[in-house]
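Order emerges. For instance:

***
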Amino acid sequence: MVNKDKSDIFASFNKDRCTLCGECFHGCPMMQLPLDIAKKEIKSLIQGKQTKHVLQKCTSCFVCNFICPEQANPTQLVLDRWHQMYLDDGLPLRAEWFMPYHKPNFRTYVVERLPHDEKLMLTTWDNLSPCKEMFYPGCNYVTSPYLTRTSLLKGLEIRGSLDTCCGEMYYRMGMFEQVEQVGKRMQSYFKKLGLRKMIIPCTAGYNMFNNILPRFGFKPDFEIQHLLVWLWERIEDGRIKIENKLNMKVTIQDSCYGKVFGEQITGLVRQILNRVGIEVMEMRYSCQNSMCCGIAGGFSPLSGYSPFRIAGDTIRSLREAKATGADAILTYCSGCLQMLSTGKILYPVQMPVYHLLEILQMAIGEQPLRRQDHRGRMFLQGMMLHQTPKLLT
């Protein structure tokens, strides 16, 4: 796999560099197309023709950008084709349930059913008073606020709501007009806060604020630090004291954006786990070659958030995790945590799913709340009640 600088992979597709070798889709962990078919698919994409596989099955996880030996950035070609499909034909109605700013949606359904203590947390987070330094929860932590109830985050003021979503799902779907609108909202939001530093736990949001939204007019004038870096600094200088060595074997569901930042994210996660005594059992696809947790199975306009596509891709990730023989699955993305917890209802592997914050809580002697099974049931229930019936129309 080609080792690329992260700043390159969001550039436009470079037709002049592409040699039609097909390696991008042949090496894709999701599609694994035979080389002759992969060559036909990239050729069809360049010609603006319909494909038999890529436009239908791609999860826009960026692996193909890393695979491409010519650094032509085929993911951007897929996103451009999806963008044109949205402009021409729109989205199936069932997709509304997963649109961040369409209400009700899969997240508002869960938020309305949170335990009382978590609802109170969200009330304090939705605050526009001046704030110099903040923890930005993003939409996934808004649906799992219990994860932040730990002394690990002591001193961090948390600000955010579902109305301050970074728009990552829009970008991964090729819905560029919506991304531009999100950029404008975020510019206005942070200006009101007078922010100087943001700690962000979500690799998707970290990438959006650093690499994507600035391409759509968003100009941050504050420091952006990933939570993993913030935590590691405190582990290193002793402000976070590791009291317990955890005798566990875990496999890691890497975030799609973890591969974008390389050792800064994927390597740091493994360093932290090593520090607390955990052995990592790598999946067949991990780090720069990692598969999506499943949610992106809905991103193609030809999927339109088909629950069958999403469930199938999540179950595939769970099978890969099970094959490692690990004791548990670890995520550092709360969105992955939610998807795998939902998928376990349909494919009940006997492996608990932990967020990295929960692992660190156990290492410092705290007891995590462990509410992800409840969240998984809520996500599945909302989808079954409000989205699945639209498949019949």
Remarks:
- The two ends are 43 Å apart (CA to CA).
- The chain has 18 helices and seven strands.
- The mean pLDDT is 94.
- The first strand starts at residue 133 and ends at 135.
